[in-house]
Structures are given as structure tokens and as C-alpha cells.
Amino acid sequence: MKLSLGVRYMLLAIFFFSLMNVFVKLVPDIPSVQVVFFRSVVSLVISYGLLKAQKVSIWGNNKPILILRGLTGAIALILFFTTLQKIPLATAVTLQFLFPIFATIFGVFIVKEKVHPWQWVFFGLSFSGILVINGWEAAFSNLYLILGVSSAVFGGLAYNMVRKLKGTEHPLVIVLYFPLVTLPIAGIWTAVVWVQPQGWEWVYLILVGICTQIAQYFMTKSYQLEEISKVSSLQYTGIVYGLLYGWLFFDEHLGLMAYVGIGLVLLGVVLNVRFKNRLDARVEVQEPKPQKTARSGKRKG
């Protein structure tokens, strides 16, 4: 199966987001909003430098949507980092992967995208895999369950804002607005709850920012090139990284049902991508090609 450029960008974004999750998990004693603050500082510096080098205006064109993207993304990230630090890695990542479902639902109303009924079946298949992996009884309080689901809701809204900015903004401008909106909020909050990082914690905090910057860029490019319903479900493949890294770095052991769940998740993703590719190919075939007029075929002179 040949992968489109947008799909490949999303797969790269997932990889770097998974590395970010590990580095956040490695600083459990640092408040989540402080981690978001460091991440935003790194992102601001890198994005601003790249935009200046490319001589692109940092302010963009559609400021209200850019601000909404930054605000919804900031809320989603703070909530996600909170769950990531307080509960097992695989469980936190599992809750985050609810967001493609919310992104698709919001996409119907915000960007007027159509979702084929079979795609909902594939989403449901992937979601059932997440339930199998996580188990029917959550090993954490209802508070973190609510925070995790809320993070997914705001994440779905944020990615619809990205899609709405298609063709009007440079990807780095969209990425830049996240720290522009987040820093004032996170900065004041961090000043109140500040915990002094020690040793390798400084490195981990910087790597959180670098990995997220790379991931955000590829994710933004992906959502600008493809429909939300096509690439959002690819995020489910990140559960593989969550389970693997949880086992390697945090001694989270996998059971048989976890592998069954992974299989269901990946099956739903592959079926959705193949189905969307087939629909896109069918539309291209049905679209009439422009015909040359008799006059356009004549040579001048």
C-alpha cells in the first residue's frame, strides 16, 4: 500500500510525540504546567528563528483561528501532561488517543467534512482495541479519567482549527501560535508552583520541547494535506510506542490481551487508510478532466 505524503508526515509526528511522552514521564516531580512552559519556550525560539530565516511574517492572516488553535491546544496539553505524570504511560496515551474520534465528530460541523459510515466502523474497531488494552477496570481515579477524556476533546478541537487554516497559513506560523498563547498562561502558573529541576531533568525538559516542535510541524503539514478523517486515526498507532516504552523504561509488563488490543487498533487504522485511499481514487476518476479547445491547440503566428 502506497502511503500519501500526508500519511507519512503523520507517522513521523507520532514517533516524535511518543519520544516526548517518555521525557515528560521522566520528570514526575516537575509540575505539568511547568513542563508545558519549558516546552513552549523551546518551541517559541525554534519557530521564531525558522520563520525569520525564511522571511515569513510571524503574525499570520487568520488571527482569531490561530489564537483558538493555540488556546485549545494549550488546554489539551496541560491536561495530557497531568495524566501522563500521574498514571501509567500506556494508560495515559490510551486516553489521549480518543481525540481522533472527537476530531472527526467536530470536523463534520467545523470544516464540513463528510465521513463515510464504514469509517465509523473502523474507528469503533480501533477504539475497541484501546478498551481491550486498557481493560474494563481503570487502575486510576475517575479524576484522571475525566482529565484524560477532556484532553482528547480539546485536542480534537485544536486539530480542526489546524484544518480550518489550510491554505492560509505557513505551518510554522500555526506552530508558533501555540507558545504565543500558552506562555502567558503557563508562565504565571509556573511562577506559583515552580520546582527547581535537577541534573538530567534540565535535559529532559529541553528534549520535550525539541521533540514536540518536530512532531507539531509534521502533524500540521499532515492535517493541511489530508482530510481529518483520513489521518487522525493514524494516531492510534502511537499506542504501540506507549506500550513498548512503558515496558522498556518504566517496567510496565504486557499481557496477552494487550497484544490482542494492539492488533485491533492497527487493523482499524489500516482499514480506514485503505478505504479512504479507495474513495479518493474513485473521486479522481469521476472528476471530468479539462478539455483543450480548438483555439488553444493552434499555434500562434
Explain the layout of strands and helices.
Layout lengths: L4 H21 L6 H22 L9 H24 L2 H8 L2 H12 L6 H18 L7 H23 L6 H23 L6 H26 L2 H4 L6 H13 L5 H31 L15
Helix pairs in contact: 1-9, 1-11, 2-3, 2-8, 2-9, 3-4, 3-7, 3-8, 4-11, 5-7, 6-12, 8-9
Question: What level of helicity do the residues show?
Answer: over 70%
User: Could you name the ranges where pLDDT drops below 50 across 5 or more consecutive residues?
Assistant: 296-301
The percent range for strand residues is under 5%
Largest sheet, in brief, is:
none
| Distance between the ends | 49 Å
H/E topology pattern: HHHHHHHHHHHH
Mean pLDDT: 83
Shape: globular
Number of helices: 12
Radius of gyration: 21 Å
Q: How many E-type strands? A: 0
Structural class of the helix and strand makeup?
A: mainly alpha
Keyword list:
301 residues; mainly alpha; globular
In short:
The protein is mostly helical and about 300 residues long. It contains twelve helices and no strands.
